[in-house]
């Protein structure tokens, strides 16, 4: 007699939901890494532009070129500000997906524990039936030998 859990499909479903939540979290974390990499690139771009402006001031450069560099610096600053918002939003999404994963993991654990409990009860019942059968055999043998 083998163990068959009547709610095994639910346990499998909860396992699949947890796996899917892990994938979604992984995807959100990848998006966060992309946003952070992009932000770091903007900071490097700003630093390079700042160094160019410092070098330009040591040489004779036209005011229009300096204004152009300053205008580009302002543009990069605006991009950095937008990218900070993107990173903040990506972090928020990662937090939401982590919470979602936690809920799915707890849900799966509840069903897995219920399955384990049912399996333990099944094993106990099988052991009890075996013991009862052995007791019955011992009783019958004792009766035969005592007559």
- Alpha carbon gyration radius: 34 Å
Number of helices: 2
Strand content: under 5%
Average pLDDT confidence is 94
| First-to-last CA distance | 36 Å
Helical content, roughly?
Answer: over 70%
- Globally, the shape reads rod-shaped
Low-confidence stretches: none
Class per helix and strand makeup = mainly alpha
Total strands? 0
What is the N-to-C succession of helices and strands? HH
Characterize the largest beta sheet: strand count, sense, and whether it forms a barrel. Answer: none
Question: What does this 3D model show about the protein?
Answer:
Helices cover 92% and strands 0% of the residues. The protein is built from two helices and no strands. The radius of gyration is 34 Å and the shape is rod-shaped. Keywords: Bacterial flagellum biogenesis, Bacterial flagellum protein export, Cell membrane, Chemotaxis, Membrane, Protein transport, Transport. Its main location: membrane. It is found in: Cell membrane.
